[in-house]
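Researcher: We're teaching a course module on how sequence relates to structure. For the next exercise, students receive a sequence and then see the predicted structure as tokens, so they can try to spot secondary structure elements on their own. Here is the exercise chain.
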Amino acid sequence: MNPQENEPANYFDQSIMDYKQGSSRLQKHLPEVVQEYFDFTEECFREGAVSEKNKQLTALGISMYAQDEYCIIYHAKGAVEHGATEEEMTEIIAVSAALGGGAAFSQGVTLAMDAFDFYKQQIH
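Model: And here is the predicted structure for the students to work with:
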């Protein structure tokens, strides 16, 4: 058997494998914590009032906002596996970008400008 046959063929699968290997390493030291975390997340993504596809798309949008590469890959894969379309993916990307831009904008026009005004008055 060729040892490379078990190796991932791309960056995305390798990233998921790295996450699983890291999880297994942590699980050796904290088996209950890791298992409870896995049980919790599995339950969160179970079909309910919100479909599994929409839960994956939501997680993808949050992952992009949080700039979490592993979760972006994992939830993009999950969205595809649950039938997400390219149009749904692009809309989620847009919503995440709007949220990220909106956070910077709202903090800029409020907190940053208020701090500027406060310190400007302190100097003059």
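Model: If you want an answer key for the exercise: The first helix runs from residue 11 to 29. The chain has a mean pLDDT of 92.
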